[in-house]
Amino acid sequence: MSRKWLILPIISFIILAAHNLRIGNVNLALLWLCFVSLPFVKNSWVKYILILSLLIGSVFWLKISLTLIQFRLIFNLPWIRLSLILGGVLIILLISIFIILAKGDLLFPRKKSSSHFQLASFLLSFILLNLAEDKTSFPILLGNRFPLPLGFTEIFILSTYSAWLTGKFLEPHKNKQLRPRIWLLFSCVFFAQLIFGLLGIQQMLMTGKLHLPIPALIVAGPIYRGNGFFMLILFISTIFLVGPAWCSYLCYIGAWDDFVSRQVSTIKPLSKKTKWFQFINLILVIVVAYLLHLFNISWQIATFLAIIFGITELIIMIYFSKQRGQMVHCTTFCPIGFLSNILGKISPWRLKINYNLCTQCKKCISVCKYNALDLSRLAKGTPNISCTLCGDCIDECKSKAINLYLLNLSSSLSQKIFFTVISTIHAIFLGVARI
Predict the structure, then answer these.
(1) Crossing angle, helix 151-169 and helix 115-135, to 10 degrees?
(2) Which of 42, 52, 125, 250 ranks highest by number of CB atoms within 10 Å?
(3) DSSP sequence for 74-86
(4) Which pLDDT value is given to residue 112?
């Protein structure tokens, strides 16, 4: 019976949606209708979103009311009946806020330690996606590229997904199963948009100017062209926020290397010297891109070389990664992987191993697909440079000897912040990352 208290808040959102529809703002009307779904979610973080949205709705309604009443007064038109109606709606909105404040614990009983972080993830995703759409010179969100404007609806869905994902990540031992699934989901969405774009649906492409979806071009492209540093800046910014986790959560190619490597159950470790191949590959990519630019080599030849590079990546994934159960492409070939590992040192995130708690069971070594752990690294208390903060070892360690840290914060708080940030970035990338 406690759910009956939600009737008035639901009516409030419907009124706000109806008003926006009446003035022709379909995009915002659909957003207010989206909020109607939230009262049916019983998690405690939802009540804060409802209160905030109703407060914004109240301010919006008060502003509209004053404008309409002032208009009628200026032109000597009847205004009392209108003011009573508008005032009545404002009272409904304010009562709705009071209901959620007073009955919030009863209406949203599912309290979790992750609730505040889920709330943060929702708000961060919502604000940043709105900023991305507002600050770009073209509609960056798919929802705003079609006749029916669904941009705000898309932002709401992605923000809610981000909050849900944060909660799931913060459940014990969920990361190992969840991470590869959401990573592959992102990659599938990314490449599906590319395929639909190539089939003629231009809205699925970022700007209509195609480039190859090869991570190495994040560095090589700007060097060859002499401009277009957006992806490189985005990459470095992401590295600063989540360290080398770009390579285990966000890379659209790495997801497939991970998928292929999981086709076998036994991981065959690689020699630590293979990291040098990755370094040499990075140098070669930079040098070749610079020479192509220096000698003004045609884009056709540059594209051909990039395609050969991409085919080589696929061969390494299909043959070597699948054979060894190890992400061979990401750890020994991809130059962006090496750059991510090196630049990851500027990030404040650190994976640390408490050797005093370690039981030498080697389970962490058996699940590491980045060739970052062996007995010598356990003794040193830190993983190899190839570690991408994927967290599989943390989930596997029963003695809790392996933990993630942000500066001097506790491992528990650090982990909550990390998954809040990574879930937010993942949701944003789902919304804006395309060719």
Answers:
(1) 150
(2) 125
(3) HTT---HHHHHHH
(4) 76
